[in-house]
Amino acid sequence: MHFFDGEQIRAWESFSLTDTYTDPIGTLEFTLTIPRSARHQIDYYRERLEKGQLVTIKVDGVSQGAFLILTRASTCGRDGVQYKVACVSPLHTLYQGSVDPDLTLHSENDASLASFILSAFAPFSDTWAIASDSSAN
To answer: What pLDDT band is residue 127 in, cutting at 50, 70 and 90?
Structure first.
């Protein structure tokens, strides 16, 4: 498990990754505990586990997905600070949002749909990109 910048999340204790073919919105939930003896890491993890930050999962070096942090619950105890984090697919905001109904595309010739799709996605994020090969256009 990694933060989006590639830094490994070392303090995790357990995680659950759910992905189904009937629902493209996968979920990731994980728990991590920072022991009292590592107090300097508490602020580090608290800042990195903010809502909207991306977390990635890799198995044997192969990406299994990127997930947006949706919620983070903190519990302080005798052993340290425990974080319970729930994440969803970046597509989650698109499924729950709605596209501007006045958005239209008029073209006299063949036009790439990529720019039109990105303009529909713009209210949700300005970092979307569409990857395609030349035969797809």
So the answer is: low
pLDDT digits (tens, 9 = 90+) for 30-71: 999 999 888 888 889 989 999 989 999 888 988 888 899 999
CA-closest candidate to residue 43, choices 7, 74, 5: 74
| Helix (H), strand (E) counts: the chain | 3, 6
Reported pTM: 0.71
In the DSSP assignment, the letter for residue 54 is E
DSSP string across 6-48: S-B---EEEEEEE--SS----EEEEEEEEEGGGHHHHHHHHHH
* 136, HSE (Cβ side, Cα atoms, 13 Å): 7
**8 Å CB contact between 28 and 16:** yes
